[in-house]
Amino acid sequence: MKRFVEGDDRKQVALLPECVDDYIGQDNPVRIVDVFVDELDFTTLGFSGTTPATTGRPSYHPGVMLKIYIYGYLNRIPSSRRLERECQRNVELMWLTDRLAPDFKTIADFRRDNGAAIRNVCRRFVELCRGLKLLSSDMVAIDGSKFKAVNSRDRNYTPGKIDKRQQQIEESVQRYLDAIETADRTSPTGFDAKTVRLYEKITRLRQQMRELNQIKKQLVKQPDRQLSLTDPDSRSMTSGGKRTGTVGYNVQAAVDTKHHLIVEHEVTNVGGDHGQLSKMAVAAKEAIGKPGLKVLADRGYFSGPDIRACDLAGITAYVPKPLTSASRKKGLSTKRDFIYLAKTDEYRCPAGERAIHRFTTVENDMTLRVYWTGACPRCPLKQRCSPSDYRRIRRWEHEHILEAMQRRRDRKPEAITIRRSTVPHVFGTLKHWMGATHFLTRTLGRVNTEMSLQVLAYNIKRVVDILGVARTIRR
User: Fold this and answer.
1) Where in the sequence does UniProt note compositional bias of the Polar residues kind (predicted)?
2) Sign of torsion, CA 67 88 86 91?
3) Which terminus of the chain, N or C, has fewer Cβ atoms within 10 Å?
4) CB atoms within 10 A of CB 464
5) What average pLDDT does the segment 430-446 reach?
6) Which of 434, 431, 356, 368 is nearest to 399 (CA)?
7) CA dist., res. 219 & res. 214, Å (int)
8) Which residue has the higher pLDDT, 469 or 7?
9) Minimal CA–CA distance to 442: which of 204, 186, 249?
10) pTM, to two decimals
11) How far apart are CA 387 and CA 371, in angstroms?
């Protein structure tokens, strides 16, 4: 083996063994994990086991377990069993944990028992980013994405799925019975064994039918008429233009538009984004600590009460209004064709007539003012306006907030591009790290904890890319 780079003999005993610290470079991100965790106040954050018991076997310090998990999610090793193996053979983890190697059950129990504290650690790192002046932008983008749960589609039930499955079972039973009847008439040689198998299949199908009837009774007790057997909190959700649903969770995230740091996140089992805007925006404002905040979101977040709540909280929202008017599909005039005159509190219709206020009503907890004009029956444009006798215009009592937001969007057309280039990048990275898999934990609280570890690892990597290891440790 001459003229090749040769290594040391693995059986050679060194007189002065090398220090483990020599194997960890000064620019290794694992040093940031060590410094960050050592500075945490585990009692204040809510970790259990911060005060060791005076009797029994000594326990591991929460800081050691937290370092293992942060390292695991930084390196795409979320499994407790894999982390146990890495603690025994990975030099970086040996350095990080001082050669401690907890078993997988201890590692898994730490994540299960300290969910709230781990989420507090994620918020603490956002505070650190704010102290490092990395959240200097006054704009965040909010969006949601569907992540798969442990529950498969076959273990998720809705009334529609049960009816379809029962229909398939009835058709299969009838097909098998017809095959048995045909066999009895023709009586071919050796068909008895096949007849027995058909009867066994029919028995299994009828057992499935009874199980489906029991599940149908349980669905009546569910508030959303949906039942998941493996992960009870997971729900079937449609994503984008996909026809098939994903059984999982809807992860909401507020992302800084300058450095793409995740400012706030939350895991929900609600399939849509409607009603999530104000909650995420207010939480993002508290995390950034700025008096004024601009929020970008897509059409799925458009909600009058949500946008008003943002306005009351000093948050400027940029949300496009969905074009869902039935009149547009029919080729009729829409509400946008009617001009509101604030001074006289009336609308001017496309024909130039005045639609005055007639009465006030309440629909879906929203106070609406109703307008129409008396000139509708004799209007020459009536065929292009409404098939009813009078075209009624409904106006929300806080409609001026939505109109002001629309004017802001018209002055800032690049808001859509900024949002599209911010949040999808973050969700794409997180799903790439997870691979073609799903959350490892079950129930909403534990999935939220797992997502917090993913977000913490993502933010750490972003800070390393922005500042570098040495500068981050120093600051």
Assistant:
1) 225-241
2) positive
3) N
4) 16
5) 89
6) 368
7) 9
8) 469
9) 249
10) 0.88
11) 17
